[in-house]
Amino acid sequence: MLVLDNIYAGYDAIEALHGVSIRVERGEIVALVGPNGAGKSSTLMTIAGVLKPRDGTITFKGESIVGLPPEDIIRKSIALVPEGRRILSGLTVEENLRLGAAIHRSNPTQVQRDLEEMCTRFPILGERLNQLGVTLSGGEQQQLAIARALMSRPSLLMLDEPSLGLAPQLVEGIFELVRQLRKSGVTILLVEQNVERTLEIADRAYLLSKGQIVFEGPAKELRQRVDVISAYLRGAR
Question: 101-156: per-residue pLDDT in tens?
């Protein structure tokens, strides 16, 4: 479904990715793990079109998406849930959700149907449609951020640190949601600080360090490589 080949990208004079190559097959959960500053978020931002690669290719379903603006990449059915949730402060829960469906605004019937589906999948959001999104709890805001991305009807969902800042009792709910989304047919590229839990649910994993891939393979294999995890993650869970 998605192939990055030898991607170099960065911010102004700072190069964050040094020849990153990954692939994501349809129906997989693929994990990107690594220490802070390894290039995980930069990889997602490059796929989403926020960062423009300086070299390399990105193909999605066989088509190049290099150079496309973010809104066109969303139209290709790729959605990103960014780190920190990015709930828009002046908008209600419903307005945040409808914003996620902006590319489908020509089909209001479908948007309404998708909104009702999100309210069923995330009951707390259905109860608080008229509440400002930023007044929700951290766990509720994360549900809103994911639901907002799902409103675009993605076939590939990219999640950047979905459990960050959540209370331990809420973290398991996020991982269960990721499993449910995969069962519903959504392919997932997951960046997550909770490495052990991530490797339990992922099919394959890439370990990044200093903008380069230092391990790739089945997630269960990386789980067994305590030496690799200790060397590169330096105490990450």
Answer: 999 989 999 999 999 999 999 999 999 999 999 999 988 999 999 999 999 999 99
Residue with tokens 């047919």: 185
Range of the domain at 196: 2-86+156-233
pLDDT tens digits, one per residue of 35-50: 888 999 999 999 999 9
Name residues whose C-beta falls within 8 Å of residue 72's C-beta, 6 or more positions apart in sequence: 49, 65
The answer as to whether 91 is a domain residue is: no
**Count of C-beta atoms within a 10 Å radius of residue 230:** 11
CB crowding 40-63: b at 16 or more within 10 Å, else e: bbbbbbbbbbbbebeebebebeee
Residue carrying the six token digits 């999104």: 133
Q: Would residue 151 count as lying in a domain? A: no
Stated as kind and residue range, the H or E segment containing 113 is helix 108-121
CATH number at residue 185: 3.40.50.300
Tell me whether residue 202 is in a domain: yes
CB 105 within 8 A of CB 111: yes
